[in-house]
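[Discussion] Sanity-checking designs against the backbone

I'm trying to build intuition for which residues belong where. Below is a structure token string of 736 positions. I'd appreciate it if someone posts a full sequence so I can compare it with mine line by line.
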């Protein structure tokens, strides 16, 4: 199905199933422990051996020698894989560093060996007997020290150009009556998902099956095939359940490759789960950024000049964190400059983490907007409203398909009680607590990518959907079932959904906030093709056939779908492909985040007291799971604001706090009452579902809202995340 004109009325608009707050259909399996994750596929791969990964003990250099004799002689050991016996390996399109290192070492904890044994304990014990001597080489580990050598990266489809210029920023900024020039930093962060990177691999002749935890099945198949030098047709990836990803499982990692190599070497299935310390240094992380923002405005609050420059680092051949991209679109202003620069660092790979680009970018931009509002003596909401735009500021000829940012801010202010906020900071106390409110806009682009599905109707009237789409805890199973039920006119209990298998049609996959809208659009396209097949079998025009209550009404008589399917059933396959609507219209999602904090006047302890998110993200397919996504994202935003930071040893180039004991994330006690409001809207420019994404929008801007609330409570402005006690103590107002 080609989507190249705005959607009109279609079967989804019936809203009998779509748009209803529906329990997750995969919930019972997950809560009872019967949903089997990658490391638990024992029935499919019986008698699997266990692999234990040995990570490099240096960040830069080479292996001088590796003694495997003691490890090979250890009880239960079946095989040891290193670069010496792994054969010729390529590098996947989505991998920056080699997944198996040696003799050259690219980063700390790069996998250099896999020990395979009969039990996990035997593999772990034998791995400790591997003796490696290294020759260290000087490395580049400090972003601040390497900024001078940073360069403009190559443009990519996701990042766009590294630099944009509109009008005369230098001249307009110099002439602006009111100016802000400030620098902000965000730290390296870890995905810290609950389920580790895990895989089981099994060879059957030349064919390889990997049960793994992966968000993008088709990408993974391509990278495994390219790395091993085998045809893609010989690789099958299976990933029906994923225990959290946040972008860290977009690409196959060392667990999948080493499981495959271990299984080939041992002659039996092998299962590998990265131990938690390796997840922080061996896989990907959100890279640290340094951001400079300059804003010039007239005394009445109109922005005349805005610039956002960002620096980040990655391994050679890596990509930059595009923290400036939202500034190209969010606020008006005739004179504009954005620049992204990338430094070469010998750290573990920096890559996508929930809302890459916008998450750290909004952390800086939305503090800067508050700082500018204060200089102008304007309410922070009013300043944002005065600089709203209904067109792309860099391309004024391109309007937004939908943009209701002002409405989000106004509704949120009324619901949150913003009018009770004192404009001056450090004025409100509740006992020993300094109390403050903060606000930030939310923004995340709506990305479109083709997605396909196969739909079967059997003689029982059961509709089965097959697509390689994944569910990373986002509720994908349910919204796909809702889409099929709505389109085919059946109840949810008549729909079966099969996901996460490369044997199924290629979907959009889970990432970039694009999964829900695109995958359901692909399912819708396949269901419409199935409707055509049913109508043709009944000898009526598809446009005249009505589907409801498990029946197809055609030619003046209702026919049960089971009867229409016949004994052999019917199968249809189709997908959604997009035209150029996203080029004619800027497609984005918008929102507003409101946060109230309390700061202990003596200790500087920060407590979030309440939170509100207002989201404008097209049609909400399932308000229940969408709310769950947003409150989870809000929680992650609190982590980014107050606690999350991979502590970098700049001498030796590794993240010190590489476990969940040292890497702090929010727990239940940190999170107070959260409220979410979805504006009632549809976007016919986006897709036949008239939906967009919401899972990452719920995070973008949260950290800045927290930071702005901390400033309002204390009068202490912190520009370097996370906002920890040491950055407040000594600067707090006097204790009364």
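Best answer:
Here's mine. Compare freely.
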């Amino acid at each position: 199905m080609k989507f190249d004109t705005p959607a009109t009325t279609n079967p989804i608009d019936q809203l009998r199933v779509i748009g209803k707050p529906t329990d997750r259909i995969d919930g019972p399996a997950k809560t009872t422990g019967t949903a089997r994750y990658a490391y638990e596929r024992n029935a499919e791969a019986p008698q699997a051996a266990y692999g234990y990964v040995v990570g490099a003990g240096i960040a830069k250099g080479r292996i001088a020698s590796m003694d495997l004799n003691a490890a090979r002689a250890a009880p239960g050991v079946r095989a040891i894989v290193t670069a010496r016996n792994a054969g010729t390996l390529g590098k996947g399109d989505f991998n920056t560093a080699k997944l198996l290192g040696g003799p050259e070492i690219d980063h700390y904890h790069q996998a250099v060996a896999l020990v395979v044994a009969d039990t996990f304990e035997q593999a772990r014990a034998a791995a400790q007997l591997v003796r490696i001597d290294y020759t260290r080489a000087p490395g580049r580990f400090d972003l601040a020290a390497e900024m001078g050598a940073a360069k403009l990266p190559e443009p990519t489809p996701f990042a766009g150009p590294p630099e944009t210029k509109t009008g005369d920023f230098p001249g307009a900024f110099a002439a602006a009556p009111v100016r802000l020039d400030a620098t902000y930093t965000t730290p390296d962060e870890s995905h810290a998902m609950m389920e580790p990177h895990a895989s089981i691999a099994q060879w059957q002749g030349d064919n390889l099956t990997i049960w793994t935890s992966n968000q993008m099945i088709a990408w993974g198949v391509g990278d495994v095939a390219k790395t091993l030098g085998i045809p893609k047709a010989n690789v099958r990836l299976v990933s029906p359940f994923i225990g959290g990803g946040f972008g860290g499982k977009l690409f196959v990692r060392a667990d999948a490759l080493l499981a495959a190599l271990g299984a080939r070497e041992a002659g039996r299935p092998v299962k590998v789960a990265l131990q938690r310390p390796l997840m922080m240094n061996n896989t990907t992380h959100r890279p640290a950024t340094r951001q400079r923002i300059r804003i010039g405005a007239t005394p009445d609050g109109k922005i005349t000049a805005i610039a956002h420059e960002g620096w980040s680092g990655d391994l050679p051949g890596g990509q930059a964190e595009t923290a400036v991209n939202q500034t190209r679109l969010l606020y008006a202003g005739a004179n504009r400059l954005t620049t992204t620069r990338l430094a070469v660092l010998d750290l573990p790979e920096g890559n996508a983490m929930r809302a890459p680009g916008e998450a750290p970018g909004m952390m800086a931009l939305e503090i800067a907007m508050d700082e500018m509002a204060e200089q102008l003596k304007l309410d922070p909401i009013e300043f944002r409203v005065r600089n709203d735009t209904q067109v792309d500021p860099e391309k004024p000829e391109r309007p937004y398909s939908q943009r209701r940012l002002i409405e989000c801010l106004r509704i949120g202010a009324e619901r949150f009680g913003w009018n009770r906020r004192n404009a001056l900071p450090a004025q409100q106390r509740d006992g020993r607590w300094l109390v403050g409110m903060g606000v930030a806009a939310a923004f995340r682009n709506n990305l479109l990518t083709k997605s396909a599905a196969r739909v079967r109707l059997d003689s029982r009237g059961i509709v089965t959907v097959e697509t390689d789409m994944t569910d990373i805890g986002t509720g994908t199973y349910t919204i796909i079932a809702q889409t099929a039920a709505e389109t085919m006119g059946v109840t949810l209990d008549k729909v079966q959904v099969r996901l996460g298998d490369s044997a199924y049609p290629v979907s959009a996959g889970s990432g970039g906030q694009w999964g829900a809208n695109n995958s359901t659009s692909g399912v819708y396209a396949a269901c419409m093709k199935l409707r055509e097949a049913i109508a043709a079998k009944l000898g009526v025009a598809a446009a005249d056939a009505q589907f409801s209550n498990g029946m197809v009404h055609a030619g003046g008589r209702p026919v049960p779908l089971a009867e229409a399917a016949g004994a052999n059933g019917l199968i249809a396959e189709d997908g959604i492909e997009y035209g150029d609507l996203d080029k004619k219209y800027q497609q984005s999602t918008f929102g507003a985040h409101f946060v109230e904090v309390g700061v202990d006047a003596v200790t500087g302890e920060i407590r979030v007291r309440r939170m509100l998110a207002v989201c404008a993200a097209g049609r909400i397919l399932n308000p229940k799971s969408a709310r769950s996504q947003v409150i989870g994202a809000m929680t992650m935003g609190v982590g980014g604001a107050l606690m999350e930071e991979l502590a970098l040893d700049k001498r030796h180039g590794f993240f010190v706090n590489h476990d969940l004991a040292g890497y702090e994330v929010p727990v239940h006690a940190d999170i107070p009452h959260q409220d979410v409001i979805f504006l009632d809207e549809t976007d016919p420019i986006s897709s036949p579902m008239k939906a967009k994404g919401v899972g990452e929008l719920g995070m973008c801007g949260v950290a800045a809202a927290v930071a702005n609330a901390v400033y309002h409570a204390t009068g202490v402005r912190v520009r370097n995340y996370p906002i920890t006690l040491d950055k407040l103590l000594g600067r707090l107002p006097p204790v009364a």
